[in-house]
Amino acid sequence: MQQKTTNHKAWFLVLPVLVLVAFSAVIPLMTVVNYSVQDTFGNNQFFWAGLEWFQEMLSDERMWNALQRQLMFSGIILAIEFPLGIFVALNMPKSGFWSSFCLVVMSLPLLIPWNVVGTIWQIFGRVDIGLLGHTLEALGIDYNYTQDTISAWITIIVMDVWHWTSLVALLAFAGLKSIPDAYYQAARIDQANRWKVFRFIELPKMMGVLMIAILLRFMDSFMIYTEPFVVTGGGPGNATTLLSIDLVKMALGQFDLGPAAAFSLMYFLVILLISWVFYTVMVNLDKKGM
Amino acid sequence: MARITLDNLAHSYNPTPSSQDDYALKELNYDWEDGEAYALLGSSGCGKSTLLNIISGLLMPSQGRILFDGKDVTRAPTAERNIAQVFQFPVVYDTMTVHDNLAFPLRNRGRDETYVAERVQEIAKMIGMEDMLRKKARGLGADAKQKISLGRGMVRKDVNALLFDEPLTVIDPHMKWELRTQLKKLHHDFGHTMIYVTHDQTEALTFADKVVVMYDGRVVQIGTPEELFERPAHTFVGYFIGSPGMNVIPAKVEGTKAYINGSEIALGAGYAPVDGKVEIGVRPEFARLSESEGLPVKVRRVEDAGRHKIIRAEFFGQDINIIAGEDDPVRADMTRVTFDPARVNVYANDWRVAPQGGEAA
User: Which UniProt keywords apply (chain A) (predicted)?
Assistant: First the structure.
């Protein structure tokens, strides 16, 4: 048996990471936990509140409504962005100048800062001066995202699709590019039609990257704040008040630190839970071979 | 099954070829006999995969025709040619079971399920995978996957030819031997026309009835393994086949004698005067070390390969390899090499020259 060497000084090598993680994640999170179980009336005076805020938030219709809107938003954009992204990837030129051209053009939306995206669409959709809003009005279509719930929803969904479909398409394209030619040749020899080539060759080979893409897009869309905030500010009324918009209103608008902290923690747990369930299901599907 | 005819076939990847060098496959006329097993042998980039892809219809030749049983299929798509191809890397449909993989080509052609089930059973038995039919193809090893793609090719009864594009590249050495044996047996039992592309001479020589050796886009020799060994038609065949390959030495040939740097070598037959770059070729198996006769050489190294010894010698800067039996003596005073006259071939500009009065038996 080889003698195991013990050297406690090795802990110093791990220390920088521990310190970094402590300051970037653990301590801020614990601060939020601290707020969530106390009440304050200013002057840095805190009173123990236990689980009161959590109970209050759970029975508050306001949070449930925001959660419902949030799930609807994420659901809709995933349902649009994935088929669309895959469709775009399938139809992109596989090599040559036009392939690079498409890649660059499609990366552009991904490079635009979020609040700029929001501003672009905010102006684009304005009925008085916006190209989209004004055109629609001229065509006699009733569109006004500041007053009409449906218009507001369509605007933020189209905006998100515009902003992020590229990501799905790029990842799907990377997956497609990794398929050796032999698969397509074999499919031709086996007389497989276009649908079968997609179903049995392309889709299985893209599954890995698509899984990551779905997870990324879900988490990102579930936490979305800037773009809808810039465009609609959560309105009209509360129609597009998604979870994070609601949270900011509560924490910074009303300065309800306790309820907002409890809200944040539950928000965090929901994302963690859904991502975990999603990941587990996908990994199991993968093991079983779909 | 079909007889495959290549008629004036040539291919260039350059749309406007200006010289012979632009052709990946130079002009070729050949009949692949129905039911034979062929190997296409050559180093990487010699055009063998190009030829295979033209036969399978994945590539359209820039000139010439290809006929299956006399019917022109040059412009027919892959699916219409009814061929099967096994690729270098196993191509299986990962998400399907072994059974569905084998059934795939039949189902795509709209055959009814009872026929499909029956046929899949037969094929599974042929490739020895009856007990794995319910498994997903994804989890299987490379050799099992290669067997599936082979089975997928044979599941159609009317398949014209089975093409193999270096199918054993990713297979473990011990499985290689087993799969090759199985391939040979399948060929023997079912008599498919098989064309097997490889750069591995052992694979080619053990698998095929006839070996087609390609070099630089050209077919340099078509023959049985024995012919390739004894009478290589081109110096490339000489040194590509055999381990080590044939010794090729520049020489001057006059009648029944060859002269190398003034030393005389006896030839097995007489030759008419030959022009151009003249060389003699003799396989290491037919060279022998000697004390007193033959070319004076410097022995540099002796490698023991187990069953035989390989002697690396040098003759005025020219490498000469000799294969000696395990028990043959190799002594310091043996500094000369002799060749078996009947086994010496003469080459002019790399092509073999036939001796006067025909080939010796």
Answer: Membrane, Transmembrane, Transmembrane helix, Transport
Residue B347's nearest CA partner among B261, B234, B268, B237 is B234
The model's pLDDT over B167-224, given as tens digits with 9 standing for 90+, comes to 888 888 887 888 888 888 888 888 888 899 988 888 888 888 899 999 888 888 998 9
- Tokens coding A248: 């900011």
The reply to whether ipTM tops 0.85 is: no
DSSP label at B317? T
pLDDT tens for B237-262 read: 988 888 888 999 988 888 888 888 88
Angstrom distance (rounded) from CA B104 to CA B224: 36
Domains, chain A, with CATH or none: 61-288 (1.10.3720.10)
Domain segments of chain B as ranges:
4-240, 247-353
> For the segment B289-304, what is each residue's pLDDT rounded down to a tens digit?
888 888 888 888 888 8
- Domain B4-240 in this protein, CATH class: alpha beta
Q: Which of residues 260-289 of A touch B (CB under 8 A)?
A: 288-289
d(CA A109, CA B343): 73
Using CB atoms and an 8 Å cut-off, which of residues 177-206 of chain A contact chain B?
180, 182-183, 185-186, 188-193, 196, 200-201, 204-205
- Using one digit for the tens of pLDDT, what is the confidence trace for B105-159? 899 888 888 999 999 998 888 888 888 888 888 888 888 888 898 888 888 888 8
**Rounded to whole angstroms, how far apart are CA atoms B299 and B337?**
10
Rounded Cα distance between B110 and B195, Å, is 28
CA dist., res. B240 & res. B289, Å (int): 23
Query: How many Cβ atoms are within 10 Å of B92's Cβ, its own excluded?
Result: 25
Instruction: List, in sequence order, every residue forming a beta bridge with B25; answer none if it has no partner.
Output: B11
Which structure tokens are listed for B1? 């099954």
Sheet with B298-304, strands from edge to edge, namely: B298-304, B308-315, B318-325
Residues A47-78 as b/e (b if ≥16 CB within 10 A, e otherwise) read: eebeebbbebbeeeeebeebbebbeebbebbb
The enclosing H or E element of B53 equals: helix B48-56
Interface residues on B facing A, Cβ-Cβ cutoff 8 A: 56, 58, 77-79, 83-85, 87-89, 91, 93-96, 104-105, 108-109, 136, 138-139, 149, 152-153
Domain B247-353 is found in CATH 1.20.1250.20:
no
